[in-house]
Amino acid sequence: MAPRRTAQVAITALLLLGCAFVLSPFFAAILFAGTVCITSWPLYRFLHRRLRGRDGLAAITMTLLLTALLLVPMVGLAASLTDAVTELVEQVRALIEASDGRPPAWLKEIPLVGADVDAYIRKLTHSQLEMRKLGLQAVEPARKFALGLGALVGQGLLQITLVLFIVFFLYRDGARISELLETAADRLAGELGGSLLELASNTVKAVMIGIVGTAAAQALVALVGFLIAGVPGALLMAAGIFFLSMVPIGPPLIWGGAAFWLYQQDQQGWAIFMVLWGLLAISSVDNFVKPMLISRTASLPILLIALGAFGGVLAFGFIGLFLGPTFLALGQALFLAWTASKSVTVADNSEEEAQA
């Protein structure tokens, strides 16, 4: 390779590395903004036509609409979470102050472990040293959990704000960006590049609509049930259902806890209602809504959704809840498309050899 060519390649590589280094703090926000833009593009095109083709006005209108749908509920969730934690601390303090040190009678009736737990609690109540030691052991994990939860919510608010800022420019210049991507895909992989780009777009739309739509439906159904049963903090618990719906056993943890609280309040009828509502309504939404929303593509396995949600949070923070499953679905779709094309190629070669 000539020295001039070597220098050009080295400068280009350094430039690409520099761009990647500068954009790395915003990588997750850019990806999520692109995902949101792709999913909601049909709605943007509708607004664009209604506003007579004015790109800037259509982009700012769509951004304000997303702000109302994403940022405002996040702020409400953060405020509700703060109030709920304060209320929980006060209730625990009141229970401790009102307690005479003896465990409840029903604790001893729990099969297998009830008697041991009852004896251990009685031992603790008669030993101030052990009670103090147990309290000190519990303070630090509780503090770390509270700080981590607050940091996650705060990080989510900042990330959503940044996503909304980026998405405005993606809407405004989306047509031009789409043309550039199509040109790049055509130069890199020819006709296959265009097909993979279309497959990626369709997969992102289907998975995002399926995951977010199912989570929203479950949260709405749960909110109705919580309000009917009179469960406190219904909005916060519905928000928890929304995020935990991506984990297979997530929603039962929320509505099961609500049913247990109702039972503890001597509201056995409402507790039974909550269990039936959770089984027949909340947890059944996934079986009806998701197949309907993801009707034009292969459904993402539950394992990949769970791994995508957990891994996405570890890799990208709060918005990784949505990015993780989307990435895995896209990888699955591209792999299936690649293996299908390989199978077709092998079959064609076999036919040609047979004819020869």
TrEMBL record:
GO cellular component, one term: plasma membrane
Compartments (UniProt record): Cell membrane
Pfam families: AI-2E_transport
Membrane topology reported for the UniProt record: Multi-pass membrane protein
PROSITE patterns (alphabetical): PROKAR_LIPOPROTEIN
Chief subcellular location: membrane
Residue intervals passing through the bilayer: 57-79, 145-171, 206-229, 241-263, 269-289, 301-323
Key words, A-Z: Cell membrane, Membrane, Transmembrane, Transmembrane helix, Transport
Annotated family: Belongs to the autoinducer-2 exporter (AI-2E) (TC 2.A.86) family.
The protein, known as: AI-2E family transporter
Higher taxonomy: Bacteria, Pseudomonadati, Pseudomonadota, Betaproteobacteria, Rhodocyclales
